[in-house]
Every structure is written in C-alpha cells, then in structure tokens.
Fold this sequence. Notes:
Layout: H1 30-33, E1 42-43, E2 49-50, H2 76-86, E3 94-97, H3 104-111, E4 115-119, H4 123-134, H5 140-153, H6 179-193, H7 198-211, E5 218-220, E6 224-226, H8 240-261, E7 270-273, H9 277-280, E8 289-294, H10 309-314, H11 321-329, H12 336-339, H13 352-362, H14 373-397, E9 398-409, E10 411-413, E11 416-418, H15 420-430, E12 434-442, H16 448-451, E13 467-473
Parallel strand pairs: 3-4, 3-8, 4-7, 8-9
Antiparallel strand pairs: 1-2, 5-6, 9-13, 10-11, 12-13
Helix pairs in contact: 2-3, 4-7, 5-8, 6-7, 7-8, 13-14, 14-15
Amino acid sequence: MASPKRSRYKKTNTSGWNAIAESRIGYPARSSQLSLFDFRVKGDSNGKATFRDPAFGDNKNLPVHRWVPWIAGYSTSFVDDVISMYLTDRKKVRILDPFSGVGTTLLQSALRGHDAIGFEINPYPALAARAKLSALDLNLVEFDSAVNRLRKKSSGWKTCLPADTPAVPLKSKIPFFSPKVLQQVRHAISFINAIKSPLLADIFGSAFGAVMVSFSNYSYEPSLGSRPAAGKPLVHDADVDQVLLGKLLQMQTDMYWLQNEMRGKLVGKSEVINADFFSANSAVAPESVDLMITSPPYMNNYHYVRNTRPQLYWLNFISSPKEQKHLETNNFGQYWQTVRDAAPVKLSFEHESLQKTLKKLRETRLDDGPYGGPGWANYVASYFNDSYRFMDALKRLLSPGGVGVVVIGNSIIQGIDIRTESLLGEIGELHGLVLEGMHCIREKRVGASITNSSVRHGGENKAVLSESAVVLRKHRLAHA
C-alpha cells in the first residue's frame, strides 16, 4: 500500500516560530494574531465601557485558544474587557474561574500578568486547559522531536496492526470508528501513551481529542450524534495521521509565536484543578480572590459529559458508565436525566417567586410523569440549589471589594421563561453581595432546539434566549 499522502502540507520549518501547518485550515496571518493582546476597553456611543460579544467562536482565529473547540466557552475579548474594567489600578491579582472549561480565563489572565486558578470537573476540558497553559513554557525542542517521531512512525499505521492498545468500552448505536480508521486510532493512542513527559502527553492528548470526532462516524450538531442521523455519510477511511499532525503543527505554530511574543514580559501563574468546585474550593484561601470570571453550565440541560464521552473513554479518563455517572451527578446543576425520577427536590433557601415557578412546573403535564412538569421542577430546583452554594462560596473567597462576573443565559422550560440571570443576582444579594450590574451581552443566542422541543416548550412560546453578564461585588469592609 502506498504511503499516506502529504501534499496538503506546506514545507515545514520546525526550528522557528513561523512553522506552518496544514494549509486548508486557513491560519490567520501573524499580524492578525496580535488581537490576542488587544486589551482595550470598548465603549458605547456615550463613552460607557461595554463588554464585547462573549461567543467562543471568536476564539477560533486566535492562537492557542483555537486548539480545542468548546461550545460552552466565551471569548478572549470578553475576558480582557472584564480584566480591564475591574482591575485598572491593580498590577497583579488573583483571578478565579470555578467552571473553567478549556481555560480561556486562565490563559488570558496569565498573559495579562495575573495569577489564576480554575476548577473543572470534566477531565477532558481540564486536559485542554493544561495543554493551553503549557504553551507559555513548553520545551519546543522536545515538542518538535516528538512531532517528528510521530511523523515517521505513522507511515505504517494503515498497514500494521497495533500491538498494545486494548479495546475501549465505549458503547454507541453504530461503531464510533470504522475498522480502517479504528486501526489508525489505536496506533495514535499507543503513541500518546508512550510519551514520558506529562506536559507533552497533555499536548498530544489534547490534539487527538480535538480532532477525533472529525474522522469518526459521529458529529456535533451541536450535540453529539451519528453522522447518518445528521444526513452525513459514514467515514469508512481517513488519514488519521494527517489530521492529527495538522493539529499538532497548528499548536507548534502558536507556541513558537506566543513564546516569542511573551519573551521578557510578566506572565502570571495559572493552574486548573480537575475537580468539582464545591468539593475542592477549600484549596483557595478565604478572601484571596480579587476577580472571578466564569460561566457555569446553563439551565438548558446541555449534556457536557455525554458530549465528551468519546474523549473521556479514548483518553482513558473513564472506563465504565459508573465513572461517567460520577461526573454527571456532581456536575453543577445536575442534568434532568439524573433527577427527573427522584422525590420532589425542594429549594434549600427562601425565594417566593422561584417557589411559585416550581409550584407551577409541578402542576404541568402531570400525565407525563417525570417527562412532564414534576421532573423538570426537580431539575430547576437542583440548579438553583447549586446556584445558592455557588454564591455562598463566592462570598467566602472574594477579597473585600472583590468582583465576580458571571456569564449566564435564561432558559425556557415547559413554556416558562426563567430569567436565570436575575435570579442569580438575587441569590447573590441573599448572601450579602452587592449586585452592581446586569448587562445583556447577547440579545439572541442559538438555542432553537431548546425553545422548540416538544418536551420543553409546553406550548407556543415567544420568549427569546439571551445571555447576560451578572456583576457582583463584595463589600469593601470584610465583615460588612
């Protein structure tokens, strides 16, 4: 069999920052990448500072941030706006992201010279965050050497069977990988498992996780589903090595560029802790956080864990449904599937209007059992109970005068428009935090599958899904 084609690659220089990867990816020119350091505060027509669009899609054209797509993320420009707006007179502070995802807040904080700490329960985005943070100081000679080893070894992936990669117990309706692709995937995993350097292993594992669905029989629409269900053909064969090398060379380009740009500049220390925020936030000292920037899971029941099952299984983070269940039941807000059959979940705090909403939900579509109002009422109650715990922890961790900025969206459940942002602000006030502002940062967000679902809408609904930034501040007197 002929060796894999490599004509899609331009000539690669592995000794400098200007290494070029797969041309069809369409990398931006180096000059346009400078927007990564655009720290200006934007203003409206009246000169008042405003937040830029938080959509994660903007990160697709930015070095390092573009490595791993993440539906739940927000833009680097939004993080920069928050830092510029609330830390104007501070040289170096500590920033917190309790639900850090793939590390946008953590990386941008480090580039601004601030220390940051994040928590992420899902091991796959936590891996991606670690990989992105390592871009600042990874030994690039070692990275280049590993990429070259992969390039040489991958020439036999299609003709030789892998010897030491066990089957992955990931169950799916149709085979996740077709046989010809699976053979190459097992070779790729074997190569990654043999990498001795933890930092390099994180980079290579993150690269594989970012591209693996592209040569599978599944796709994101945006939830993970089979390609046939989305009207797409199965992927019977693919050049797995070419796709993986393309991603690694993209990373190589970004790391050379970033390390060159940051040479001699103050870089903060950032870390991500792979654990749920509620059980692990004792790692952060009370009143030690000057600024929190985060976006917890929205109350839209988007299943972040199940949408990353392929990465979790193939990268050996979980090996059974039991381990997956742990991630689901300890996730912020739970999932409807995990609480729908439980006894009625009560609010853990007093809130009159929310109690009325829950009562209305429990009286809706009773004939549908957990699929009707009672099951969804459990979901809403669980979500706001976690919101209450979140605000309690934020009050404890913020320094006097410290600020927390939370990106959150409303939700439509059983025909009821639940203004999550307003409720979150009110819950913060119950804990003694000051609600400084509530900014609508996107008037209409993607989410037709939520509003139009026969299970969710409960009838005709004209409500619009939006996104807001909720700004809360702790009193400057610590015990006020």
